[in-house]
DNA sequence: GTACTTGTTCCCATACAACTAGAACAAGCG
DNA sequence: CGCTTGTTCTAGTTGTATGGGAACAAGTAC
């Protein structure tokens, strides 16, 4: 599981990490029970702070996608499979939305904002 | 056009305002040519700073949804109709996505993150 | 048991974004 | 002309993101 960051991007580093891990779960690269690299290792290899990596892990824990335990590390939650990030209906819905957004030439900010609002 | 804010929310105030205005355009509450309330008035009624409101307006201008002119105020851009924020296909796509997200019990953050990733 | 791993929780410091505050300015309107 | 309204500027406060370091707690390995 290769993680990368772009220090120049507007998104916070921990959000970049969380997004890649979510995408990996959705793509099936990571499955329930799989272990994530220790936060210290990720921090060292990306040359960023331990706290930053842990914050990404904790965000995923708050979303119910990852389980964290001292001494054991971070593992993909069983719920991540059950909850179905790779559910066919969900992925179809996302693909359709992206296609519609592109068709209308909408700014990505506009699209994500509309979705966020619709989810409230 | 009633605008509200939640000072305790993690989203910046100007983003909250922009999101509501986008949603209003998408819902048809606001149409091309309609005038937005003067920034000073909004700032006063919400008890926030003029700059914060103007930043929301400017973000919408950058997205092509609103036009700003000194002395005349802020108006919904013609493109806002053409671009079709209230396009049937778009709205159906959003509704479907929201339904799928709810069905799977996904955290809103997870859903929006996946969409943002898919739009890149 | 001891040693090691790994997340958790503190401390603090720095950099940047968000917000506030106030003022002056410029374009449009009546 | 006066009034409205967005634009631009300066400046200060606050919160978040990130970094750096340390101690701690729960789990694993021997």
From TrEMBL, chains A, B:
Transmembrane segments: none annotated. The keyword Mitochondrion does not apply. Signal peptide: none annotated. Gene3D superfamilies: Winged helix-like DNA-binding domain superfamily/Winged helix DNA-binding domain. It comes from the Bacteria. It holds the Pfam family GntR. The keyword Transport does not apply. InterPro entries: Tscrpt_reg_HTH_GntR (IPR000524), WH-like_DNA-bd_sf (IPR036388), WH_DNA-bd_sf (IPR036390). Keywords: DNA-binding, Transcription, Transcription regulation. Residues 11-79 form the HTH gntR-type domain. This is GntR family transcriptional regulator. The lineage of its organism: Bacteria, Bacillati, Actinomycetota, Actinomycetes, Micrococcales.
């Amino acid at each position: 599981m290769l993680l990368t960051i772009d220090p120049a991007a507007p998104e916070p580093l921990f959000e970049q990490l969380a997004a890649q891990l979510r995408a990996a779960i959705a793509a099936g690269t990571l499955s329930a029970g799989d272990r994530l690299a220790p936060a210290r290792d990720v921090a060292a290899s990306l040359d960023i702070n331990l706290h930053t990596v842990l914050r990404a892990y904790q965000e995923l824990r708050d979303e119910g996608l990852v389980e964290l335990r001292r001494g054991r590390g971070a593992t993909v939650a069983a719920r991540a499979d059950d909850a179905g990030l790779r559910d066919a209906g969900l992925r179809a819905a996302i693909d359709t939305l992206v296609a519609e957004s592109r068709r209308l030439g909408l700014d990505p900010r506009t699209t994500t904002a509309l979705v966020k609002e619709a989810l409230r």
